[in-house]
Specification:
This protein has helices spanning 3-28, 36-43, 45-48, 51-55, 59-82, 87-113. By secondary structure, it is mainly alpha-helical. The longest helix is centred in the C-terminal third of the chain and has 27 residues, at 87-113. It is elongated and about 50 Å long.
């Protein structure tokens, strides 16, 4: 497969994870203890840091996004295991973070060969 195919897998995972986090904290699971803005700042803002470079296909930003996706993988594992109510959101978070990590890994690996 060409590097751009893996880039599109990572891009689909990025868009899916971004949308999942936004919907989870604004529509589906509104916490009465924390303000929505604070929750979004803590969860969505780290994805925005490497976004500009990742959307341009820059290798450094893509690598940082792959490292960052591991934090969301751990968070998804904790949600899927500990919270019965948020098990589906945890599994989706695991899926999207693995799509980002594996897509970026193969994208960068094949990009060096071309």
């Amino acid at each position: 497969m060409a590097p751009r195919h893996y880039y599109f897998i990572a891009l689909a995972g990025f868009i899916g994870l971004f949308a999942l986090l936004m919907l989870n904290h604004t529509v589906f699971n509104i916490s009465p203890k924390l303000p929505v803005a604070a929750t979004l700042l803590l969860t969505v803002t780290p994805l925005l840091v490497p976004m500009r470079g990742f959307l341009r296909g820059q290798p450094k930003s893509s690598a940082w996004l792959a490292y960052l996706s591991l934090i969301y993988f751990i968070h998804g594992c904790m949600n899927a295991y500990a919270n019965e109510d948020e098990g589906l959101f945890g599994l989706l978070e695991i899926l999207f973070s693995l799509m980002i990590f594996s897509g970026v890994t193969f994208y960068l690996r094949l990009l060096k060969r071309h």
